[in-house]
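Subject: mismatched residue count in predicted assembly?

I count 370 residues in my input, but I want to confirm that the predicted structure covers every chain. Input:
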Amino acid sequence: MNREQAGRVLGQLSARDDAIVFSRDATEVSWRGLAFFSNYRLCRLTNYATMPTFTMTYLTDGTEYIALDGTANPIYTADEKDPLMLTEENILPYIEFFFSHVQGSEGEVFLVRDPHKMPFINNFTDAQKQSIVQNFKPVNVQFDAAHNAYLVEATLHYGGTLMDASIAVMPDGKISFERQHLLLSGIHFPDSPYGRNWIEG
Amino acid sequence: MASKDLNDVLLPGRPLPADSLMIAKALEILSASPHGQQLVNFVEKKNIVIKIVRTPKAVSYLPEKKLVYIGFNRNNAISPSCFILMLAGILREAQQEAAGIEHPDLHAPLEKHKEISMAKHEDKVWYICTVATELNDQRAFTEYKFLDELRKMGHNEALDLYLLQERNG
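Triage response: the counts match. Full output below for your records.
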């Protein structure tokens, strides 16, 4: 965002009762569209005046700002305000978006699409890599007409383990785990699998 | 093999005491340590505002000289001892700023950033180690396991160095 647009966002956010203070001179504001929303998009604020830098991410329709706080609540709130357009093509991006912003007691959940491209794969021993590849179950997306839900079978990384799980996604965006089965343990990521990368647009 | 439950990701956030209560209790405990008491005096004298915010990960933040934030995930709340030590750290940073030891301008040379930021960080970590050790030595706070918490926060090496220096006088 250019300076004028960023200033507008900072102005809108600072007017809120629960506003978190950001430096006007040293804060970068950027945004990213989300295929499954019509009106809401992601907006990220990073204050470079502090060490380390401080970042907050919001879901916004340009007027309302919903802070992503690591729980599912803010995403479900946006889902209610801007009904989701879930399709077979964007169901995985929705799940990945959800997991990258919601954490449990063991940290983030990461959906493994390809074991060879799994984050930190080169940190593991050859034996571990082999086990990861052997245990990996490919992603399978199905629409369950009876329950009006997408069912996604996938291999997930959570808390240093790989799991084979069945994820149900309702039309309103609510997620539940229908089934989970431990595949491998001792697969610890040294850092967030989502990294620090952010591509605006 | 230990199994993790994916469903704990979907919890709506755990109930916690009121923010004001958490902050008051943390300041009360800090005041039981001589170096923590200095921070509490600083808060009172300079009218430092302490706020708790909901953030995906545990974080402390000083956007202005008199405003500090402690943020954490309500679904994965930090322990009381972690909260107290994070508060000690960010208050020490506020003290640095109040004393004129500020981060360089964003456009300052990298060397200057490295020099000042490293010095500030070192001072902050040293201060947290001091507070944690002073609290850990008191029987009333045995359950808080301040030194273990400090190690969990990633200050293992700094704490070992601090304790070594303490032993060597």
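The first strand of chain B starts at residue 49 and ends at 54. Marking this ticket as 'not a bug'.
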